[in-house]
């Protein structure tokens, strides 16, 4: 028998979350963001559930090829555009929309030979200071693009730095709206946090929202709000089983470095899951975890292939009992990925993407 760890992808949750995002953003169309192999869920595994979106957005040209290979005929957007001139050939062949964020990408387009002109999104750097044209350079870039026979429609795009935090999006929205005021074309601004928090504002939702994380069932502004607040469901469950039980007496310690010491007799369960599976090593004693669907806590250090849990609240637990690291337990109890992520000093984003290839993954339903 293989090690009893596995991940399960939940199409019904993906569908639910997309409906939820659509509701938050009125009449906007939805780019389902499936970069990083659908945030670690697997493009092929999420495709059926996510084809209810209006388009797929990603960065990697090979991932765009995979979405086309699944039979998707609708829009696909390259969020960072092309990396070199010959990428444009693939854009022409696969009919990909691509972001244009710098002069070099316009130069490449200007010498590209294509029968079918491309749809592009021209990206403004409205304050994030990663990719995009500065506001004062945006309109000249637009004029240059507009003059190219290789370009058909020009959409207008920006990305928020603080949609999930106190600073919010108001200043970036103001800059974007001012510079693009009289330009034609579809607008796209909002990631998950902006769509959920500010999607009722037409200037924020634009014509297309670009949700990623919320579609997978993580709250973008956790811990201010959690998935229950946003009515999101986990799209991934990481589960395993107890492969050992130890009865400790007061003074006994657990694991490498003996970081946990029992102050009274306690039953400890040994779980077949470690950092080599993608569980964060920085999670320490107190991190929530479900055993038989009952909320308990991790104790001691996470090691490569195992971690240890407090069985005080689950006296019936024995070897073979179900353990839920994140997601949904068999009894329906939910542990949002945001909780272990926070305890490990990271985000749901990173945990999803870091699910290790050695974890067998399937799709339920
Ligand atoms: C990743 C990404 C998104 C999705 O962001 P979430 O926070 O996961 O919703 C949207 N737009 C761009 C440009 C991105 O790179």
Beta percentage is: 15-25%
Q: Termini distance?
A: 24 Å
Q: Evaluate the radius of gyration.
A: 23 Å
Count structural domains. Answer: 2
Q: What would CATH call the homologous superfamily of the largest domain?
A: Alanine racemase
Mean pLDDT: 97
Chemical compounds bound to the protein = pyridoxal-5'-phosphate
Q: So, CATH architecture of the largest domain?
A: Alpha-Beta Barrel
State the total count of DSSP E strands.
Answer: 19
Main beta-sheet annotation: 8 strands, parallel
Provide the spatial order of strands within the biggest beta sheet: 8-7-6-5-4-3-2-9
Q: Tell me the helix content.
A: 25-40%
Structural class: alpha/beta
At the first level of CATH, what is the class of the largest domain? Alpha Beta
Overall shape: it is elongated
Unreliable residue stretches: none
Number of alpha- plus pi-helical segments: 13
């Amino acid at each position: 028998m293989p090690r009893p760890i596995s991940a399960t992808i939940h199409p019904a949750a993906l569908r639910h979350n997309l409906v939820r995002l659509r509701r938050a953003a009125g009449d906007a169309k939805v780019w389902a963001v499936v970069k990083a192999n659908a945030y670690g869920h697997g493009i092929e595994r999420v495709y059926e559930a996510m084809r209810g979106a209006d388009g797929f957005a990603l960065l990697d040209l090979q991932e765009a090829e995979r979405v086309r290979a699944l039979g998707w005929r609708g829009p696909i957007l390259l969020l960072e555009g092309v990396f070199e001139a010959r990428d444009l050939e693939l854009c022409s062949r696969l009919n990909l929309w691509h972001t244009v964020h710098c002069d070099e990408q316009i130069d490449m387009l200007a010498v590209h030979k294509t029968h079918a002109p491309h749809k592009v999104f021209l990206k403004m750097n409205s304050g994030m200071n990663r990719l995009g044209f500065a506001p004062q350079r945006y309109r000249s870039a637009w004029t240059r693009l507009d003059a190219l026979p290789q370009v058909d429609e020009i959409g207008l795009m920006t990305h928020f730095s603080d949609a999930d935090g106190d600073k919010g999006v108001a200043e970036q929205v103001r800059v974007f709206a001012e510079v693009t005021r009289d330009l034609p074309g579809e607008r796209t601004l909002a990631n998950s946090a902006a769509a959920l928090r500010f999607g009722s504002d037409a200037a924020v939702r634009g014509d297309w929202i670009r949700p990623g994380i919320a579609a997978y069932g993580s709250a973008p502004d956790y811990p201010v709000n959690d998935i229950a607040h946003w009515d999101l469901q986990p799209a991934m469950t990481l589960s395993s089983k107890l492969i050992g039980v130890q009865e400790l007496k007061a003074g006994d310690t657990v694991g490498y470095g003996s970081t946990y010491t029992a102050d009274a007799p306690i039953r400890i369960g040994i779980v077949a899951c470690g950092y080599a599976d993608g569980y964060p090593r920085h999670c320490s004693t107190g991190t929530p975890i479900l055993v038989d669907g009952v909320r308990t806590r991790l104790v001691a250090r996470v090691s490569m292939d195992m971690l240890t849990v407090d069985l005080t609240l689950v006296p019936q637990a024995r070897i073979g009992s179900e353990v839920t690291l994140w997601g949904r337990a068999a009894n329906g109890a939910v542990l949002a990925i945001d909780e272990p992520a926070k305890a490990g000093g990271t985000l749901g984003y990173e945990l999803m993407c870091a699910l290790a290839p050695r974890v067998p993954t399937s799709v339920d339903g």
